[in-house]
Design a protein that fits this description.
Helix content is 42%, strand content 18%. It has 520 residues and is an alpha/beta fold. The N terminus is likely disordered. Bound molecules: NADPH dihydro-nicotinamide-adenine-dinucleotide phosphate (NDP).
Length: 520
């Protein structure tokens, strides 16, 4: 009988003459054409348990590679990715329907950087820390904070960025010395399978990284076997994952949905602001957790801003990215039910008085596309201003001043990204600090995600924990405190038998050390 990996590899082989192999597994559709590209196995709980056993058996050898050995494999993987960029890009495009540019810039570019970053920074972030203490009784002792890999990490990912968001989180988990099982979205599993193949080629030991293809049940089964779960997806599923992790008392890091606001002040460079609003609402057809989902513009520049954005959005080409780079700006809606959500939000807004300046309709098939859409006369009674739309839509709202913009920006259950546009950067930074969001960009958007030195995570219902930065790899480890006592006496002062004189002396010492302040 074929192993899961062999089976998955077989499934990955090109079907001859376009004939689709279908063994009853999960069909993977190309959303830009409606064709079924391949099928992948739908793994049940037993298969996941077997994977977990193999992963645990493989982990100690991987940990023993040490930082240098693991960094070598990741560095080779970085080169492998660049050598195979075309193949990986095509795989991403085939299962998401996104444009080649969206696959190349936001996925290949991200992962290429991430392999090198974690190979170099992992050892820095996870190096033993020699700690100095203010505690008088430990003077002279060696105090070490050490990071130890947790063992087996489960990564569950969404469909919008199969390389960046599903596979990307595996890289620091592996660098830390863990085995990893990745459960990609059932909609977009092919990129993960291909990357696992690439890592094997680069010398990653067998079973250190496994791909558990399947649906939600497979993800739920995975949580039952791992030492930590890294989840990216919707807030709704994130809550279920958090509950399951809590039952097992394992840590969970949750990267969830967003409704990112953009604020445009009257003194902003309107051309730049309009370009950013257009690009970062429509890029990846709006299917980005940190895409600009709503805009608040100060009254004096509102009309000019709206005119600029409408013209830019109207000029965008939407459709199948099949021709490669430069074919279209806006690709497909990857996840079938997402189309219903987009239509519902636009319809709800129009019913409540919004005006559609451009777009507003599904594009007739083949393939699943929605017209790049700009809406005005919107307010917070409309879903398009409060719920995550995750589509190529941009609602723009007029505000009296910056205070109203900040209030409305913060009036959300979400708190992922945000941006402020103004020529007064000091004022922009002051406003950024008032936004309840995991990231705030001044005269920019989304750029924080590419800065792997900075934490990326959400406030409020947008998540718990973060990726990137020191915390983005330490979360895959347990902390161990090591205390080494050298030059030791036979007995410490505070030990038995208790003697009044010694105890009074110690109590006096505490008073001397900690009792000198006042109570003002
Ligand atoms: P979902 O929450 O629907 O799914 C995410 C993953 O969880 C999928 O692999 C899914 O499997 C799996 N899953 C479903 N049910 C369970 C369960 N009970 N237990 C464990 N796993 C389960 O999200 P989407 O795939 O629709 O992704 C879009 C969402 O992701 C958006 O809200 C977006 O904002 C968010 N996101 C957040 C990011 C961030 O960094 N904060 C980045 C990217 C996206 P299957 O697909 O097979 O059902």
């Amino acid at each position: 009988m074929a192993t899961v990996e062999q089976h998955a590899e077989q499934q990955l082989e090109e079907a001859p003459n376009g004939v689709v192999k279908d063994d009853g597994g999960i069909p993977v559709e190309n959303p830009a054409t409606g064709e079924i590209v391949r099928t992948v196995p739908d793994l049940d709980a037993d298969a996941v348990a077997q994977m977990a056993a193999r992963a645990r058996a493989a982990q100690p050898e991987w940990e023993a590679y040490g930082f240098d050995g693991r960094a070598r494999v990741l560095s080779r993987a970085q080169k492998w990715l660049m050598d195979n960029a075309q193949r990986v890009t095509e795989t991403i495009v085939s299962e998401t329907g996104k444009t080649y540019e969206d696959a190349s810039l936001a996925e290949i570019g991200y992962a290429g950087n991430a392999f090198g970053f974690w190979a170099k920074q992992g050892p820095v972030y996870l190096a033993d820390e020699h700690v100095k203490s203010s505690q008088v009784l430990v003077k002279g002792k060696k105090l070490i904070l050490r990071y130890r890999p947790l063992g087996l990490i489960g990564v569950i990912g969404p469909w919008n960025y199969p390389l960046t968001n599903s596979f990307g989180d595996c890289i620091p988990a592996l660098m830390a010395g863990n085995s990893v099982i990745l459960k990609p979205s059932e909609i977009t599993p092919l990129t993960s399978l291909l990357l696992a193949e690439g890592l094997r080629e680069c010398g990653l030991p067998e079973n250190v990284l496994q791909i558990a293809t399947g649906r939600g049940d497979t993800g739920a089964a995975l949580i039952e076997h791992v030492d930590m779960i890294m989840f990216t997806g919707s807030t709704r599923t994130g809550r279920k994952v958090a509950e399951a992790a809590a039952r097992r008392l394992i840590p969970a890091s949750l990267e969830l949905g967003g409704k990112d606001p953009m604020i445009v002040l009257a003194d902003a460079d309107l051309e730049r602001a309009a370009n950013f609003a257009t690009y970062f609402s429509m890029q990846n057809a709006g299917q980005t957790c940190i895409s600009i989902e709503r805009v608040y513009v100060e009254e004096p520049v509102y009309d000019e801003f709206v005119a600029k954005v409408s013209a830019k959005v109207r000029a965008l080409r939407v459709g199948s990215p099949g021709g490669g780079f430069g074919t279209v700006e806006v690709g497909a809606i990857t996840f079938p039910p997402q189309m219903d959500i987009i239509k519902d939000h636009v319809d709800d807004a129009v019913q409540k008085g919004a005006r559609v300046l451009t777009g507003g309709q599904q594009v007739p098939g083949p393939g699943r596309f929605y017209e790049p859409t700009v809406l005005v006369d919107v307010d917070h009674t409309m879903k398009i201003m409060t719920d995550e739309t995750f589509g190529p839509t941009l609602p723009i709202m007029k505000v009296a001043d910056a205070e109203e913009a900040v209030r409305l920006a913060n009036e959300s259950v979400y708190g992922l990204g945000s941006s402020v546009f103004t020529r007064d950067t000091a004022r922009g930074e002051a406003i950024a600090r008032r936004l309840h969001a995991g990231a705030a960009n001044v005269n920019d958007a989304m750029i924080n995600y590419t800065v792997l030195e900075l934490p990326m995570g959400g406030a409020k219902a947008s998540g718990l924990g973060s990726r990137h930065g020191a915390g983005g790899i330490r979360k895959y480890c347990s902390q161990q405190a090591i205390v080494v006592t050298r030059l030791a006496m036979k007995k410490e002062l505070f030990m038995y038998p208790y003697k009044s004189r010694t105890s009074r002396m110690l109590a006096g010492l505490f008073k001397l050390l900690y009792g000198r302040g006042n109570r003002d």
